[in-house]
Amino acid sequence: MRLFPLLLLAVPALTAADAPPPADTAPAVLVPTIVARFPHDREAFTEGLIWHRGYLYESVGLEGQSDVRRVDLATGRVMARGTIPPGVFGEGLAAWKGGLVSLTWHGGTAYRWNTATLKRTGTAHYRGEGWGLTTLGDSLVRSDGSATLTVHDPASFAVRRRIAVTLNGKPVDQLNELEAVDGAILANIWRAPFIVRIDPASGRVTAIIDLRAIVAEIGISDDIEAVANGIAWDAAKRRLFVTGKRWPTMFEISLPKG
Predict the structure, then answer these.
(1) Which tens digits make up the pLDDT trace of 203-218?
(2) Which CATH number is 3-12+26-254 given?
């Protein structure tokens, strides 16, 4: 596999005029193996996905359709849901101290949820857009579609620091759904069949996960919004799940070392 054409597809900021990076500095390209397939709600406009306490929790977007839901992995059945007010577009989702936190696209409001009842228990506020959200150590990390991730205090939502994400020295924008895995951050690239693995200390992309075969299997060519979006990590069983907006399938995948 030639890495440079892959990077042209994965990172819109790169152009054909850019010189290929030296091979020894290029991030690893990881082609996943599909371990299992599970049903997924074909109508779910997936914005956030996590594994928490034995279940998948999913944040679904679009105004008037947004909710946070608990999902049975084996059947894809929605077991419970908490609704987001009409006119609000739900976005990323993370767990914090037994509860859940979800973002909204515009308006800078984050909702707090009771995990058991999926009732809203409070709000928090931030500046800018909300796209993806994940828990990293004692912080929450938010994406907003730019090449910068924002690290928040989970209680106050105060900004602790920002992470400028780069691939071979170039900014990587369109960062969307996030998931922390073994101290790294995985991020979907909006409308691209790739996930990047980010070192949160430096912001450097250390690997690219190539989802092109999975996207091809889904085969939804008539819906431009049916993009790969949704990463969940079951740390106890070390299982990684991926899906997409309006995808009928949830995939468990394994990655080669790299």
Answers:
(1) 999 999 999 999 999 9
(2) 2.120.10.30
Over residues 173-213, the pLDDT tens digits come to: 999 999 999 999 999 999 999 999 999 999 999 999 999 99
Alpha-carbon span 217 to 119, nearest angstrom: 36
Phi, psi at residue 199, to the nearest 5°? -80, 115
- Residue 25 vs residues 5, 7, 167: alpha-carbon distances, Å: 16, 13, 10
Say if CB 38 and CB 76 are below 8 A apart: yes
Taking residue 206's Cβ as centre, other Cβ atoms within 10 Å add up to 14
Give this prediction's pTM. Answer: 0.89
Residues 6+ apart with CB under 8 A from 17: none
- Helix (H) or strand (E) run with residue 133 in it: strand 133-136
Q: Which two tokens stand for residue 84?
A: 């987001």
Please list the residues that pair with 254 across neighbouring strands. 33
| Opening angle at CA 239, ends 233 and 241, nearest 5 | 60
